[in-house]
Amino acid sequence: MSNSVTLIAGYMAQKYGLPPPPPKIAGIDLGTTFSSIGIYQAVTGETEIIPDELEKRSVPSVVAFLRNGTILVGTRAVEQQEKNPRNTIYDAKRFIGKQFEENNPQFQADLNRYPFTIKLGENGSAYFEVELDNGTRKVTPEEVGSIIIRYLKLAAEKRYKTPLRQVVISVPAEFDQLQRFYTEKAAHLAGMEVRRIISEPTAAALAYGLHKKKGVEYIVVVDLGGGTLDVSVLWLQGGVFITQALAGNNRLGGQDFNERVQKHLMRVIKEKFSKTIEDKEDLQQIRLAIEAAKLQLTNLPHTTIKLNLNTVGVFTYELTRKEFESLNEDLFESIKEPMKAALEDCELKPDDVDEIVLVGGSTRIPKVRQVVGSFFKKASNFGVDPELAVATGAAVQAGVIGGGWPLQVSAMELPFAKRKKHIYRSDQIVK
Question: Which of the residues are catalytic?
Answer without folding.
Answer: 29, 93, 200, 223
